[in-house]
Amino acid sequence: MRETKHRWGRPSAVRNASNVLLLLAPTFLMCAIALRQMWLATTDTLSPWKGGGFGMFATVDSPGNRFVQICGWTTAGEEVRVRLTASMPLDINAGLLKRLPAYPTEPDLRSLANSLVGAEFIESTVSELARRDEFFRANPQMVSHFPTLPQHPRRTLELMDRRRQGHYGAASEHLQAVEIVVWRYVFHADARTLRIERMLGPVAADSSTSTPRAPQAAS
Amino acid sequence: MNDPPFDSELPTSASHDIGDDVLRLTALLLIFYAGSDWLLTIPLKIACGGALFSSKLLRSWVLWLGISVLVVFIDGGAWHSIDNHKYLIAYWAICITLALSWPSRGSWIASRNASLLIGLCFFFAFLWKILAGEYFDGSFMHRVFLTDSRVAVPASLAGGVPISALSANRSLESMMQWSPSPDVIVELQSSRALSTIAICALYWTLLLEALIAFLWLIPIGKNSLVKDVALIAFILTTYVLLPVVGFATVLSVMGYAHASGRGRRCVAAAYLGVVALVQLASVPWGGLVSRMAMA
Fold it and tell me: Phi and psi dihedrals of B5, rounded to 5?
């Protein structure tokens, strides 16, 4: 290829600039990604800790300080809590569960809610209620912090793993409606107080709006 | 391909080719800290392990291009959930590919990009602390001391808050998830001393981050020893307390590449020492101290 040169034999300015662009490509890439992250974290729900903008340790709003609350209603009309873990064998995208705390979006919440309606659940062996009661017995002065405790649903359900079907003592249950909310913690240094605020939702789905699910294949 | 017109920037004593030591350190960095998924971890272990044993593979730009493509695409698929140091590792892998594909300027490419990546990383970290607005009143760092189990022991020792009180803070925090309501307000147990320490710690971090960004980005600080001292001080004071060993290692490897590219062997050796030292941050000090206290 013929090269463009000055009359003194030096490469042209255009060539110099393209060399610099190529050699410093990682740096330019970093700037582009960081600026995009700043845009998404300030105008959307992306956590400042994630997305390559180096906002870690700048704010309380990390994915660990956000949580997803899932309420369900059984076919008998009982309100229950739903516990999810990312490793559950589920007909929904596992990436979605990982993404939710870092970058929750309404379409993702809707997709999750639709997946849960009609899925098979089993009563959780992790009794949040027992843990809570145990803590309050040891720290009675803390009860006053929680005026809404009596409204806490009595039972927690988790998704049934068909590969472990023989290990479950109880029969599976289905939910006819699901509601999902994303919350985040807010801390006030002066008063040393912690509270939570609703970040996204509620997003609801019920058996009339979601598509019927094919049964999970046993392996 | 013509050489780029950067001869004036290169020190005469330095070799123009990127050193094997930088490549080996980067291979180790990728083996231990780049993978976010088995899809990436397994090929990285094979490719980087091979590079560690064969100098031909170590200097093959094709191998490093493959590694960079893998890291960018697989980590990029989880862009919303991976830690920021994984982004930095991906940028650094691209730098190594560029440096090897242009051998006569390899050292310059690695050194210049390392300097800019470190400077920009601290610039963005500083900018976020200003933008987020939770930093100046101390709320962020105070919250970390009160509820983060990783800093419970130093917070208890320095701030005079019993370990049991910090543990109760964490229980209260997790219980807020059981019956979420905006009406619930929980007062965390703390002390005035801990609040003061939180404010001192955050201003120390902010000052160091601004200084590091300034010194590593401006051309005047090109050969300044202060910038290396500031970076090493930051790594040792921050990552020993909050053990993000991957971040500490990638910063140290880039610091090493920058120093060795400019022929500053003592500074490069100091960075190697830092890489070794930060591994101690992985020791569960909190658990050990608690067990010793109970015994």
Answer: -85, 65
Residue of A180, A31, A182 lying closest to A103 (CA atoms)? A182
CB B197 within 8 A of CB B241: no
pLDDT at A145: 63
* A-chain residues near B100 (CB < 8 A): none
Indicate yes or no: CB of A60 within 8 angstroms of CB of B140. Answer: yes
Interface of A with B in 11-50 (CB under 8 A): 11, 15-16, 19-20, 22-27, 29-31, 33-34, 38, 42, 46, 48-50
CB atoms within 10 A of CB B71: 25
CA distance B134 to B53: 48
Residues 84-123 of A with CB under 8 A from B: 95, 98-99, 102-103
Q: What is the pTM of this model?
A: 0.84
Distance of alpha carbon B109 from alpha carbon B103, whole angstroms: 10
Instruction: Give SS3 for A193.
Output: strand
Q: What is the pLDDT of residues B84-101, one digit of tens each?
A: 999 999 999 999 999 998
Choosing among A5, A15, A21, A23, which should be mutated to test the B contact, i.e. which has the most B CBs within 10 A? Answer: A23
Q: Which of B87, B137, B198 is facing A33, going by the closest CB pair?
A: B87
Mean pLDDT, residues B225-247 taken together:
88
DSSP string of chain B?
-PPPS-GGGS-TTS-SSPPHHHHHHHHHHHHHHT-SSHHHHHHHHHHHHHHHH-HHHHT-HHHHHHHHHHHHHHHHHTTTTS-HHHHHHHHHHHHHHHHHHSGGGHHHHHHHHHHHHHHHHHHHHHHHHHHH--STTSHHHHHHHHH-GGGHHHHHHHH---HHHHHHHHHHHHHTTTS--TT-EEEPP--HHHHHHHHHHHHHHHHHHHHHHHHHHSGGGTT-HHHHHHHHHHHHHHHHHS--HHHHHHHHHHHHHHHHHTT-HHHHHHHHHHHHHHGGGGS-HHHHHHHHHH-
Q: Can you tell me the distance from the alpha carbon of B246 to that of B40, in angstroms, rounded to the nearest whole number? A: 16
Residue A71 forms beta bridges with which residues? A81, A179
Listed in sequence order, the residues at least 6 apart from B203 whose beta carbon sits closer than 8 Å to its beta carbon are: none
Name the minimum distance, in Å, from the CA of A169 to any CA of chain B.
25
B153-206 pLDDT, tens per residue? Answer: 778 888 787 877 888 788 888 777 777 777 778 878 788 888 888 888 888 888
> What region does B160 belong to: left with phi over 0, alpha with psi -120 to 50, or beta?
left
Strands A156-159 and A79-83: parallel
Backbone angles phi, psi at A119, to 5 degrees: -70, 165
Residue A7: DSSP 8-state: T
